[in-house]
Amino acid sequence: MFVKLSALATVLAVAGSTVAHGVISSPPRRQPGTNFEAVCGSQIYNTVESDQYGNQQLEEQNINSATTAACQLYLCKGLTYADNTANVQHYAANTVVPITIDLRAPHTGVANVSVVATATNKVIAGPLISFNPAYSVSAPIPANQTSFSVTIPNLNGACATAGACVLQWWWDARSIDQTYMSCVDITQ
């Protein structure tokens, strides 16, 4: 009986450890808050609150009747500007922005950082950097995939208003159907 319980505990520990994957740790990324919970529902909120490193597909599995049309899981995993007004970063054109990724579990895929207009969820600048392959499981992960810099171009007034734009790190591992993203609210 002890062996069976130990084996089960090991399986549960391994399964639990594979939930966490990666986020921007610097500059300050969007965090879950009350507005996110209101538009996406408490089930999605609890999923993200318990593990911000998780993938967007896990959120999709938790869509239910409390999830409103305002919940944009494909933009910053649904995390909202309204919950992050204190974290807006101002970057003049040609500012070099150091970015740190906290990676907890690699999955081979592709990754990039772009400036995205939040009203349309469209890339308006970038990719500013890209990696292909990214976060490989078959080779050591290069240091420049978890600590790198991007240069913010002239955004021609598109990001003058807080909440209009994000600097988005996007990582897609197609072989396992998992997508990760983190957003930093920016103005220029």
UniProtKB/TrEMBL annotation:
Q: Which cofactor does it need?
A: Cu(2+)
Give the range the annotation lists for the signal sequence. Answer: 1-20
Q: Domain named Chitin-binding type-4: which ranges?
A: 21-186
Report whether Glycoprotein shows up as a keyword of the record: yes
The answer to whether the entry has keyword Kinase is no
Q: Which UniProt keywords apply?
A: Copper, Disulfide bond, Glycoprotein, Metal-binding, Signal
Which terms in the Gene Ontology molecular function aspect does this entry carry? Answer: metal ion binding
List the Pfam families.
LPMO_10
* Entry-linked InterPro entries: Cellulose/chitin-bd_N, Starch-active_LPMO
Return the similarity comment.
Belongs to the polysaccharide monooxygenase AA13 family.
**What is the name of the protein in this document?**
Chitin-binding type-4 domain-containing protein
Organism source for this protein?
Jaapia argillacea MUCL 33604
Q: What is the lineage of its organism?
A: Eukaryota, Fungi, Dikarya, Basidiomycota, Agaricomycotina
